[in-house]
């Protein structure tokens, strides 16, 4: 089955909203093993919509449309599809009944506009809308099928999950079982990573290997299509082993958990706590950690010592260090990590001091960053030389901190298959 | 000019990322007065991309492409466009020089794959990439023009702002002078705001009024098209006055400056400093403030007192307050704001304490937040009851803090027209 997704709505073309439905539906299609080759967005205009539909029906056999099912004059998805297929619109008694109830419950009067939403294309399949008025519609010809879904994600997502997924699954051969595994890497760029496993990417068929870079992390999604779960898992293991034999040093975990989610998870498992002393990152490390549910179990807090006066008064960094070696130094990073650990009485302390830019600091250029990690027994420091914008340098500093901390703590990670 | 946007990348069709570039570019096109009639997404496949391009070049005269300019074999936007136009790819010496420098600075070796990124289509216009390797390319035929931009938003957005916007503005007829002004509002939802000025929105022609909600802030962009700058400014003033007579209490500034940028600007102007004590926000306020250039002049630091032990030991909140009124209380918020101000010897102190969820705290439900603002002379506290996810509650708390602080400091704001 070759699918494509058409979103109807001028608000998308004006840049007022992002097409999150296309992302959601594509993800669902991937899970179903259905290939999606195109997304389109077109405005509330019958001629342009007809043209887009003609192109789509010539190249795809499953077309999912979103939006344009509302009550206003602008909403014309059903009308346009019906005209293209030479079919009539008819009232769906079930939907009419549901709408009557909806308005009665709310003590509101149903307008003629609203009643339009109870119309379906003759001979179509109706998907109930449990979170709004517009029902979804599926219509088949000998060459293709079109599924029309309401635009608001809070209506579309539950409708798709509950009614459209089983409808499509019923049409897909049961022979193939799809399974995937995500490997996560840090401290390596996408192009460098791709080059290292170039031959594996070239020769991939089943499992497939899909690299993706996002927020400074690179992931590889391995997807296998086969007859049984165990056989699939073995294929995934085999490819993973080949990949990790080359990229193991950059690997930090499986699945959808980010670096910071991994940190909170590991600290919880080991029953340990961490506090941060942040200069260059200005609270970014703490913000990322506390964004995660249950962070309070592992994170008592942080001191953001943006000024040198704060480093001195709140974390007792000596004048000697600040004057002789500077705030941007290995020694200061170590001192901050140790002192913040003691201040918060935590198991670990982590610190960030450096130059975010755009101006140099203490004669050091933007991108020079020192990080310290301290436990009761030992303290280490790291030097980074990052490039990029102020915000980029700050974000990557926080991530490197998370990565080095994870390396410090981690012995093993658990495999997660989807 | 009729525009359309084509995104190239299988990761979009797999639903791994959302097409935020299409939203951003559509918004920018709307500001430039250029109509966008279609968005498309197509995978890293030369045949399908060629087909999509053929459809596009038949119906639009400005085609903006995003993605597929990277170093891997999958990246084939330039190659496909060149083949369609019957043109050759050539090395751009400027881009080569920039790339050499990039790799030298990072002590990394440039691979052959990377060198591919220095290639452009013969006879094309080059848009410099100041945040990555792939340059942008603009190529014209007698019937249409194609602009190719890198996929990562952190590269695309600055490139578009700095280089593509003036390039397109130069092509738009100079007869009509477009001028716009953005009014910024907080503490009011988009639909409520729209309802209050419904009649103005209904009757708008020139200037137009475009509402936009983003990150909890609502903006109104007034755009006037006319013959002269002064006449335009008068029209904008007139509409603005009508709007602010109804919405003045929610208005906080002009232009693209966010709440936090406004705060840093105001503090700098008044030569004042602020420190934060953060529990629920976990460093988010500090992170937002320190994201802004020159924050070190106005922000000495913050204490993130996530645990009650930290509130006690680092900010001397008394056991009486924590036990009797609780950490989530007006009294605790005031105490935190006053103590952090003294700790950092700053002009203002601001504090955040509350329940981010998903679980209740001290018998209070998620969304209950107390904020304190302290100066030398007085301390106030605010209570918020927010709904939404953990991250949403945290973000809006930090924004309300910024908004109340701004109200405290602000007497007047300066008009900014674009």
TrEMBL record, chains A, B:
Xref: SMART domains: MoCF_biosynth
Domain MoaB/Mog, residue spans: 4-170
Any Pfam family the entry gives: CinA_KH
Ranges annotated as spanning the membrane: none
InterPro entries for the chain: CinA, CinA_C, CinA_KH, Competence-induced_CinA, MoaB/Mog_dom
Family that this chain belongs to: Belongs to the CinA family.
PANTHER family per record: NICOTINAMIDE-NUCLEOTIDE AMIDOHYDROLASE PNCC, NMN AMIDOHYDROLASE-LIKE PROTEIN YFAY
Protein name stated in the entry: Putative competence-damage inducible protein
Species this chain originates from: Evansella tamaricis
Originating gene: cinA
């Amino acid at each position: 089955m070759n699918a494509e997704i058409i979103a109807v709505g001028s608000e998308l073309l004006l840049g007022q909203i992002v097409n999150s439905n296309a992302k959601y539906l594509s993800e669902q299609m991937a899970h179903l093993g259905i290939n999606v080759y195109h997304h389109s967005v077109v405005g509330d205009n019958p001629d342009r919509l007809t043209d887009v539909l003609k192109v789509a029906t010539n190249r795809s056999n499953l077309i999912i449309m979103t939006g344009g099912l509302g009550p206003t004059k602008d909403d014309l998805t059903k009308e346009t599809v019906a005209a293209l297929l030479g079919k009539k619109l008819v009232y769906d008694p079930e939907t009419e009944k549901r709408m009557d109830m909806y308005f009665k419950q709310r003590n509101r009067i149903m307008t003629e506009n609203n009643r339009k939403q109870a119309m379906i294309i003759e001979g179509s399949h109706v998907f109930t809308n449990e979170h709004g008025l517009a029902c979804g519609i599926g219509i088949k010809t000998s060459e293709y099928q079109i599924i029309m879904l309401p635009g608001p994600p809070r209506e579309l997502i539950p409708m798709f999950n509950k009614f459209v997924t089983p409808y499509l699954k019923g049409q897909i051969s049961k022979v193939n079982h799809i399974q995937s595994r995500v490997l996560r890497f840090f401290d390596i760029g996408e192009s460098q990573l791709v080059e290292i496993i170039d031959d594996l990417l070239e020769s991939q068929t089943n499992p497939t290997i899909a690299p993706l870079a996002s927020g400074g992390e690179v992931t590889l999604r391995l997807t296998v299509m086969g007859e049984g779960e165990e056989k699939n898992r073995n294929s995934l293991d085999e490819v993973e082993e080949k990949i990790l034999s080359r990229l193991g040093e950059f690997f930090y975990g499986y699945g959808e958990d980010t670096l910071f989610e991994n940190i909170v998870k590991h600290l919880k498992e080991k029953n340990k706590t961490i506090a941060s002393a942040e200069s260059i990152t200005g609270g970014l490390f703490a913000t990322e950690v506390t964004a995660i549910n249950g962070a309070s179990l592992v994170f008592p807090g942080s001191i953001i010592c943006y000024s040198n006066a704060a480093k001195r008064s709140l974390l007792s960094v000596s004048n000697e260090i600040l004057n002789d070696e500077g705030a941007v130094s290995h020694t200061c990073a170590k001192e901050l990590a140790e002192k913040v650990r003691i201040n918060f009485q935590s198991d670990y302390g982590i610190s960030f001091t450096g130059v975010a830019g755009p101006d140099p600091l203490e004669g050091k250029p933007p991108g020079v960053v020192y990080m310290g990690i301290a436990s009761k027994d030992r303290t280490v420091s790291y030097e980074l030389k990052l490039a990029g914008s102020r915000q980029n340098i700050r974000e990557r500093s926080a991530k490197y901190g998370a990565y080095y901390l994870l390396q410090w703590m981690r012995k093993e990670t658990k495999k997660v298959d989807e």
